[in-house]
Amino acid sequence: MLRRVALAVAAPLLAVAMALGVSSIVLIISDHQPLEIYESMWRFGTQLNSIISMINRAVPYYLAGLAVAIGFKMNLFNIGVEGQYYFAALVAAIIGAAFTLPSVLHVAVIILIAMLAGAFLAAIAGILKATRGVNEVISTIMLNNIVLGGFGAWLLTRARYDDGSGSLQIATKPLASSGRIPNLNRWLEALGFDVPAGSRLTGFVLVAIVVGVLYYVIIWRTRFGYDLRASGMNPWAARASGVDSKAMVVKAMLLSGAMAGLVGLSTLLVEEGRFKGDFQTGIGFTGIAVALVGRNHPVGVALGALLWGFMERSAQRLDLEGVPKEIVVIMQGTIVLSVVVAYEVVRRARAAQQQREVSAQVEDERVADTTLEVPA
Amino acid sequence: MTDVTPSSQRPGHVIDQEVAQQAPARPARRPAWMSFAVYAGLAFVTLSLVAEVADAPALTGDGTWGAALRVGIPIALAGLGGLWAERAGVVNIGLEGMLVLGTWFGAYGGVEHGPWWGVVLGILGGAMGGLLHAVATVRFGVDHIVSGVAINLLGTGVARYLNIITFDERTGATQSPRISGNVGQLDVPFLAGGDLFGWRSPSLAGWLDRQDWPIVSDLGAVVYGLTNNITFDVLLGVLAFPLTWWLLWRTPFGLRLRSCGEDPVAAESLGVNVYRLKTIAVVVSGALAGLGGAILVLFASIYREGQTAGRGFIGLAAMIFGNWRPGGLAMGAGLFGFTDALQLRNEAAVHAMLLFVAALLAALGVRALVRSRLVPGAVMLAFAAGFLAWWLMTDEYPKQWVPFTPHITTLLVLAFASQRLRMPAADGVVYRRGEGR
Lengths: 376, 437
What we know:
The structure holds two protein chains of two kinds. In chain A, about 75% of the residues lie in helices and about 0% in strands. By secondary structure, chain A is mostly helical. In chain B, the strands form two sheets. Chain B has a two-stranded antiparallel ribbon. In chain B, strands 2-3 form a two-stranded antiparallel ribbon. In chain B, helix 3 packs across helix 16, helix 4 (about 60-85) crosses helix 9 (about 215-225) and helix 11 packs across helix 13. At the A-B interface, helix 5, helix 6, helix 13 and helix 15 of A face helix 7, helix 14 and helix 18 of B.
């Protein structure tokens, strides 16, 4: 029993140890003291404004991670979260700025538009796969390149809004204040935290939490989620039990794309209020890594997203230590690999242990049999 | 079946008839290369006519095609890397990372020791990425996608990190110093008038180009563009294609390697060392991507962060587009290279491509109708009409749409043709020796 528990926690611990080991080697090779560096990162990363920054970074990563995870749950690789969230945020910014509604309703409508736009782009890949058998990895890569390689820029130039400030930055019309989500600093202050100036906790974190719970419920507590997981684990068995695999592909892509549509909204609704030409890209690819590290579980993905946020925030400290902060990217890559390797190693250890237990049991029974046979 | 009829009409030839029924002779099929040549020829004639009608000589200009080769070859090599790995059953989504490693190590070799060392180190850098992928996926049984994603992260991180500790003081964090010198170049003898043992051969393609004959001169220009001033690194990349074809489809080694991608359990039972072959395939895969990266930096004479711009992924797409075959892959990569080159050299000519696409779709549509595939035929003809109307009613193609046009094309082609694609049967399946199926 104790061994079982040990094995369960062994994998994450092993992964962290492996990642720290590799990073330490890199640091030592480039003439730095790993322990000092880690300590400095930790001290900087655990200050309140760092923690706020970590959470702000983690929110989009989390949503992107969940979007990818939905696909992974049924062996679909939606590598197109990248294009989907960019497109969705842009469309939501353009349409959302065109009207005003009462506050909460306006925000809800913008969120809905973003989800629809993300789902639309993902649906192209889903429908192509279901009806024409096009590999979703390729179609989503193509869609990424279409959106980020020019279509997004073209759309943005069309929707360009000149606010008269003379800025060269291309941006859409700002959203009305009714379409914005406030930051949560007042709540933090009410809880007794002394929030440093310039730090703002994104209000979108609440949406992310709700979405995480919804994800859990949908995947593990509904018929749809059951079919989805079944299709992922054993497509033949799922089909035999009456799951329409083509419809599942489209549905899963729609859901994944809708989730991807939320990724850019923390920036749009809380921080900027408009879509600017330098809108952050790359979150979709981070989402893949985060989903892998979190093993597609909402809590795991949350931890992964927070870890990524923490590393990127505390990396800012590294430059002061004279270490290129890019070492963080190396650490992240190592973590992705070591998590998987660690789980595989533990899986094998567990399988070996089970085998031993079973053979021991068989042995016992055989001994028992022979002892019974002796008097006869 | 045509062969069966005469023999069955002759009485008394029972045995003959039985044999014929057991093995009905198929109608003789044209070999694949012949139909390929016919289609390619027709496509080229169309392109040449379009260039004439739309007054866009750049479509068949030697400059465009030469640039297409240089721009397309890194994509093609990434795709070829993907082909090696996937033919052995390992999905390699980490090509982008290996390409990045190739660019940085290529630049490092080029800056510190000269351009040829850039090629060598670029190949080695990519191969290191491949080795990591091989160790993770083949030895440790890590999911191929996971390992690939990690390698993409690692490749970018390692390149940036190394660039900072090596070149930061000279040129900043995100680029390398300029690479001086080049690997040299050649004109292909007889076609582009290169030297042969000191004797200057005639340039057949160049001569055709100057004749101003319809179509034939265009062909001359294209061949001239593809054969003059080829740098040796590009030549190396081009040669990798026939070499790959020969190795994988004409040698026992290749058969074994491909058997690992189709059915590793059966291969192992026949004495093939699956682990070793998969490892070799993935390392070669990385090396090819690394060569692609090195070509990229040598062409630009400098390493810049983000230089690869997703070419690894595009290469992967080109490979699938090409049905996991070198020839098809080269065509797919050529499509991307050609569009890129066209936009670099002559944006007006991109507008003429609308007419070309219309003609191509019309031809495919008619072919589908003739073969009584009515719905696809009608769809394609409708699209053709749409493209024709677009060409007639506009004067230029939106500039910002040019970069992603090949990607739309790829999507359309896949949508129409993906049923004919077949990937290796055990592609992406983690294989563990002794665990059976």
